[in-house]
Design a protein that fits this description.
Dihydrodipicolinate Reductase, domain 2; 18 strands; binds NADPH dihydro-nicotinamide-adenine-dinucleotide phosphate; alpha/beta; 396 residues; Rossmann fold; 9-stranded mixed sheet
Length: 396
Amino acid sequence: MARVLIVGAGGVGGVVAHKCAQVPEVFDGICLASRTKARCDAIAAQLPRPIETAQVNADNVPETVALLRRFRPDLLINVALPYQDLHLMDACLEAGVDYLDTANYDPPDVAKFEYRWQWAYQERFRAAGRMALLGSGFDPGVTSVFCAYILKHYLDRVETIDIIDCNAGSHGQPFATNFNPEINIREVTARGRYYEDGGWRETDPLSVRRRFRMPEGLGSLNVYLMYHEELESLARHLPGLKRARFWMSFSDNYLKHLEVLGNVGMTRIDPVIYQGHPVVPLQFLKALLPDPASLGPLTKGKTCIGCQVRGRKDGRTRVYYVYNICDHEECYREVRSQAISYTTGVPAMIGAKLMLTGQWRGCGVFNMEQLDPDPFMDALNRHGLPWKLTEGAVFR
Ligand code: NDP
């Protein structure tokens, strides 16, 4: 029996609260805290059992430490924004609490997703006897576990990885993002980057396109090469890896809007002075766009996220594809959320469960692929994200 503090009451925070509440044998006490307490209370009112709620500014370390000392959780689940990661890790060290997140630190003034800031906490977590689990969402998260699982059971060595994230769903809005618009647009407008032969190669944003035929008759979509944070940790933790790439699907409509917004300067992340006040155009745009949590009842169709992993086994080349298909409307029926928040929130709950039950333990800072994939893969099947594995190439 354990106590958990969930920080962040957006689309993902709502799913984590629902999924933890469904597993009372592990999550005995739950507190949901965020900058706006009313959002926590609205989520709490949907749950099958009572939880605590609290107001906290996660950028204020003493405030978070005070909440940790009052609620006394065993683990803090950070599903606020990547800007809060380091402050929440500091608070966990000070209060002696384990830490988990779903997205790596991103400094507010430069769009730069890198693990180095969080990996720098390794010695402090180890010395404190505490565990920090980084990136326990879907991508990063499940994708990293998929790669570790294929390596453990099917290959002697992984040579190439292609992570392919497709959303074949639609919310019917002219333009909206499926998770926090500011983080989403910073990620999508960044230069493309992939790992090859021991180094990183860059491409112009969204300049490399392929067609991908999804399994189970879901149809074909255009996918675009992007940088994604799990590439960095996989390149570090999988010895012998020759190439790792990440692909995401976007509709022509989404790309057209993004292009126009970029052309007129609305995706800029530096402040501009408007009527004497500094305004960050992307933050203003976020205020205009639909809240991702509001897309839940509107979104139909399915997501399909998977990894194609090629490598060597007993001297022969083998290729495997492991994937999950998730239905937006089924997610909404279960937890009042669309599949993007669902596919992030379920793995966050599973990572927390494995830490709290001692199946994933260690002192220091860990990425998902460093831990035993088997209990996580089992839990995906049991908690709403079943997966399938096929042999043979599906993508070139
Ligand atoms: P939302 O914008 O919907 O929610 C973010 C929540 O964090 C809001 O409730 C917000 O509060 C709260 N928050 C923001 N700043 C603070 C702060 N300083 N102190 C306390 N609370 C704060 O985002 P999502 O739910 O869509 O995404 C949550 C996280 O999940 C993000 O880090 C995102 O990058 C990550 N993610 C990871 C994925 C993966 O597969 N690994 C996929 C999708 C998302 P308020 O309402 O007051 O603004």
